[in-house]
Amino acid sequence: xxxxxxxxxxxxxxxxxxxxxxxxxxxxxxxxxxxxxxxxxxxxxxxxxxxxxxxxxxxxxxxxxxxxxxxxxxxxxxxxxxxxxxxxxxxxxxxxxxxxxxxxxxx
Length: 107
Description:
Elements: E1 2-9, H1 21-31, E2 34-39, E3 47-52, E4 55-60, E5 69-77, H2 81-90, E6 98-103
């Protein structure tokens, strides 16, 4: 099953963003688990899109002001949620931020 790992942290997490991620990515690729992933530019570079009453509305920056922000993502394929939790728990960001695991819906 595919899972999306949403890597989240507060603004200070950017300083740790690359710490150990290459080693984790190499290990997970060798296991055949890691399908894709990338870091994201900060929320200040975001554009939020909404459509209301047929009109497209754009907002610079994030949709919501929150302490934690999504800093990156990893697409993994695991046998089950238990394996996905094990993989996420080994990610370096788990030590300074949070990792949200979501099953991917495919038709």
